[in-house]
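Bench log. Compound arrived from synthesis this morning; before running ITC I wanted a structural hypothesis for how glutamic acid sits in the protein. Inputs:
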Amino acid sequence: MSSKVRVRFAPSPTGPLHIGGVRTALYNYLFAKKHGGDFLLRIEDTDQTRFVPGAEKYIIEALAWCGISPDEGIGGEDRGNGPYRQSERKPMYRQYVDQLLDNDKAYIAFDSAEELDTMRQLAKDAGAANWQYNYITRGNMKNSLTLPKEEVEAKIAAGEPYVVRIKLPRDHEVRFEDTIRGWVSVNTNNMDDKVLFKSDGMPTYHLANIVDDHLMDITHVIRGEEWLPSAPLHVMLYEAFGWERPVFAHLPLLLKPDGPGKLSKRDGDRLGFPVFPIDWNNEETGETASGYREFGFYPDAFINMLALLGWNPGTEQEIFDLQGLVDAFDLSKVSKSGAKFDFEKGKWFNQLYLRSQGEAALAKDLKAQLDARGLSCNEQYLGTIAMMMSERATFPQDLVTEGMFLFERPTEYDEKTASKKWTAESPAMIQDLSERFAALADFTEANIETAFKDYLAEKELGFGKVGPSFRLAVTGKGMGPSMFTICEVLGKEEVLARMSAAIETLG
Ligand code: GLU
C-alpha cells in the first residue's frame, strides 16, 4: 500500500449533499493536506435506481464553494486511476468477482425477490428476529452451493438473473481498530451473505467500494458513522481478496439541535436554517432545498463551523481559516459521540468573518447586494457605508437591509419615536436646522456636526430635544449609526428633501 496518505470522498449522487457529507469531505481533505497526501473525489453511482441527475454537479459545485478541491478524481486530475465514476468502471469489476468465485469466497444465487420475501415472512411467522441469507440458510436456497454444477451453468446460459453473494465463514470474529471508535468486533454468525454483484454486470456498493479503494491505493477510509455496520463486511472482503486494508475512521453523526437523532432536512425547515451547503433545485421533480451560500454564509465561516462539529482542537482557539484547520486537524481528536448542530454558533462565525474582512471586501459585498436589489448609492461611500453597517450585520444582505434608509427615502416613520420625540416644536427645529445645512458650502460630516452643535448652543437646546427628531426625519428610525456620517453619505439635496418631507408628513 502507498506510503503516501491517500483518502477519498465517495458520495453517491442521490440528491443534494447534506452538510454532514460536506463535513466528511472536509475531514478527508484536512487529513490529506495535514499529511502531505492526496484527496480524491470518486462518484459511487452503482445503484442506478437512486441516481439523481444534477447531484454530481451539485457535489462538485458545493465542494468548490467550500474551497475543498480534489487533487485527483472528479474535479481533479486523472493520475492513471480513472475513470472515477463507478458506472464508467463497470467492466473492471467482473474479474474480481470471478476471483472470489474461484477461491470459494463467494457463490452464485438465483433466488428471486419473491422467494426471498417468502423466507423472510416464514421466519417472521415463526417468531425469528430477522431472516438472513447466511451460513445456515444458504444450504436451503437456490444457489451454486446447493445446485449441481450443470444446473448452475444451464441457468446462467439461459440468461436467468442471478446475484453473487459473499460466502462468509461460520463463527469468525471480525476485528478491526477504528481510529475514532477503537476496537470493533463482530461475529460472522450475525452477518449477512451480502450481494456483491448482479448478473446485469453491475457491482453493488460494497464490492465496488472495496475494489476501488484498493486500486486507488486508499490508505484511510474516513466516512460517516452510518457506514460502520458495513465495515466488518468490508474487512471480510479485504481478507477474501488477500489485500491489505486501509485504516478506518467512522465520523460521529450531526445531531438535531434540540433533541436526539440525526439532523435532517425537516429539522432545518422546522427551525429555519439550511442543512445543505448551496441551494438545490431538482429540475425533474421540482424538489428544492436552501443552502448556506445563498443564506449569506461566507465559505470560511461555514467551514469553520462545520470543522468544529465533532472535532475538538484541544485549545481555546475557535477561529480557523482553511489552512489553520489543516495545521491543527487531528483525526484522533474527533469525538465518538454525535455533535449537536448549533445554527446560532454558525451565525456567530459568519458575523466575525464579515467584520474581519476589511473595508474593500465589505464594499464589494455591499455593491453586490445593492445590484441584486436594483438599489444604488454614491459609489464613493460604499466603503464607509459597509463599515458603518457591518456592526449590525451577520450576513452581507444585512449591510443593505439594516441600512435601507441609506438607499431609499423613508416612507414610514417609527411610530414609537414619532409619538414620544416628535413634539409640537419639532417642525420648527427641523426647519431651522435644514436652513443651516442649506448654507453649508461643503456638506461634510465635520461641517454638519459643527452646524448642528452650533444650532443647539445658540438655541440652548439639549441634544435629546433635537437629535431623535432629526434622526426620525432623515432616516425614519429611532436608532442607528452616526447621523453626521449618514447625512454626508446621503448628500445635501437628499437630506434637505427628507427634512421637508418629514415636516409635511409628521406635521
Ligand atoms: N457511497 C457511499 C456514500 O454515499 C460511500 C461510503 C464510503 O465512504 O465508503 O456515502
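What the model suggests: The chain has four domains: 1-72+252-356, 91-197, 357-406, 415-506. The mean pLDDT is 96.
ITC booked for Thursday regardless.
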